[in-house]
Amino acid sequence: MIKKPYLMFIGDVSTAVFAKTAAGVKYWRPEQAAGQFRFPGGVDLGLPDFTMKEAVNAGIKTILIGVAPQGGGLPQEWLDFLIEALDAGLDIASGLHVRLAEIPALKAAAEKNNCNIFDVRFSTQTFTVGKGTPRSGKRLLTVGTDCSVGKMYMALALEKEMQKQGLKATFRATGQTGILIAGSGVSVDAVVADFISGATEFICPGNEPDHWDVIEGQGSLFHPAYAGVSLGLLHGSQADAIVVCHEAGRKDVKGIEGYALPSLKECIHLNLQMGGRTNPDIKCVGVGINTSSLSDAEAMDYLNKAEDETGLPCADPVRTGVAAIVESLL
Amino acid sequence: MIKKPYLMFIGDVSTAVFAKTAAGVKYWRPEQAAGQFRFPGGVDLGLPDFTMKEAVNAGIKTILIGVAPQGGGLPQEWLDFLIEALDAGLDIASGLHVRLAEIPALKAAAEKNNCNIFDVRFSTQTFTVGKGTPRSGKRLLTVGTDCSVGKMYMALALEKEMQKQGLKATFRATGQTGILIAGSGVSVDAVVADFISGATEFICPGNEPDHWDVIEGQGSLFHPAYAGVSLGLLHGSQADAIVVCHEAGRKDVKGIEGYALPSLKECIHLNLQMGGRTNPDIKCVGVGINTSSLSDAEAMDYLNKAEDETGLPCADPVRTGVAAIVESLL
């Protein structure tokens, strides 16, 4: 469990697209995004600019590296600041590809100050293989026609709407951005293949009968590289409900040639068929569409057509909210 | 690539069931099983008993640990002999759960003598994610209704029969016993989940148009713990042909309560449906049945009924051979 609130480390990253994780944390957990630290030219998230000392005085517990350094490697001036932060008693949470906990200078500073470094892209836990045993509580999994179509946003929007309606709901993170937002979770695509379902069972264990775990999906059953991860998640979650997510206008698997995306109906059908193996009562309760590339009028038209095709409530978590999907769930 | 031939290390393992890997190597690659080393009471594989020196003089290159120590831990007397073997210039190949290359005394002896230790259960390679691009050559994948139903034996029997008929065929190993038999391969269930398909593509790359890779399957699409691995293998292999394997009499998923096995037809159907995503021309060319628990008459009856159900040639690789399946393939 990563301690909150966070100081968002922006460094010298000047392009908003490279600060997506930080922006996601601020959007979904504004109460945890207590400040930002920038070098000259770093993008402004609209948070108070703190020096490291001011951050500690403001009660901040962890520096969250919510940006990807341009160029790849970790710049020396980032390193210097991170050591200073550890010396002040802050933990570090990072979604970078490089393992900060294995950089000798950071490792030494963390040990000296008794601080933690969370490299959330990598799992340090050992898991058991999936058990497949039915468990108490309810679970909803977001699934997709492809990668990067809005599965995490849909899960977070559902959690928010369900909690607003007084329901017991907990977002369960399965990727690095989701983990930084939630403060815990497991990067399911980074566990050893034998344990995909077991790690998923670990993330969303048995719970109160009226409690919903809202689980962030990964990949797609139709994705030629990642379908194994998606199937392990579907089996391990024993989903009572799924919400299928899609990006308006996307026709083909992103970054892979020759793979047309399935229709919404095909995607719903296959997920119900496969998910039925570990939960025969699985049903699809709605469709999420990322309509950010469309005008308001185009978006409403797209959502209406998707409702006609599927017979289910279709919503954009950012543009329309997801109340209709929560209604369909209950 | 593990160097051959092998000295089969039996140690003090006195029960044939714990020497299954060694027996499998001897059965499928008799020319590589050049000798055995036993302590008093060790099971007899019917190979020449060699001291370590005699083995080296006989041209043996690698000690293969084809047994699981009773109790789990590695006995000290095993360790002493393995160090002696490394000192004599032999490599070690092991399918044990413990990583021999990380035991300090073995690591030091291997370095001193410039020898290799292959812990085939663990992958030391880094893979790329699956590409999904069509590639030349033909590929057959064995799939199953469950774990441990004979997928490896079927793949090895098909390779043998195809080579006997003058066809170009290569067994591709995806589990530790298969790797020790073939001398190379990747334990696909031990790679990071993101790379299941990518590792599979690596194992069976593009080849001559009339060459068949015969790929050992793992798990089952119907297995609540391992289906993700099975789907990644199916997608990554881009199988032109599958052979569905089953054990006569098995009704439920082994070791997991509440999961009935699919019928042969259901298993064929789902594998063709899912495999069609990366190879639309996939077809099922036969069924393998492990009939070892049945009498000859019962076995023939079982195989006949399976043929009636599926309309495909059904064979037990050990009892009947697989010529009928190869015929159906061509």
Helices and strands, with pairings:
2 copies of one chain form a homodimer.
Chain A: E1 6-11, H1 20-28, E2 33-38, H2 52-57, E3 62-65, H3 76-87, E4 91-94, H4 104-113, E5 117-119, E6 138-144, H5 151-164, E7 168-172, H6 176-182, H7 196-203, E8 211-215, H8 227-237, E9 241-247, H9 264-275, E10 283-290, H10 296-310, E11 314-315, H11 323-329
Parallel strand pairs in A: 1-2, 1-3, 3-4, 4-5, 6-8, 6-9, 7-8, 9-10, 10-11
Helix pairs in contact in A: 1-6, 3-4, 7-8
CATH architecture field of the largest domain in chain A? 3-Layer(aba) Sandwich
Q: How many alpha or pi helices of chain A?
A: 11
Q: Quaternary status of these chains?
A: homodimer
- Per the CATH scheme, the topology name of the largest domain in chain A is Rossmann fold
Question: Mean pLDDT of chain A, as a whole number?
Answer: 95
Which runs of chain A of at least 5 residues are low in confidence (pLDDT < 50)?
none
- For the record, what is the CATH homologous superfamily label of the largest domain in chain A? P-loop containing nucleotide triphosphate hydrolases
Strand content of chain A: 15-25%
How many domains comprise the coordinates of chain A? 2
Residues in helices of chain A, as a percent range = 25-40%
Give the strand order of the largest sheet of chain A, numbering strands 1, 2, ... along the chain.
Answer: 7-8-6-9-10-11
Number of strands of chain A: 11
Rounded to the nearest angstrom, the radius of gyration of chain A is: 20 Å
Distance between the termini of chain A: 31 Å
Shape summary of chain A = globular
CATH first level of the largest domain in chain A:
Alpha Beta
H/E element sequence of chain A: EHEHEHEHEEHEHHEHEHEHEH
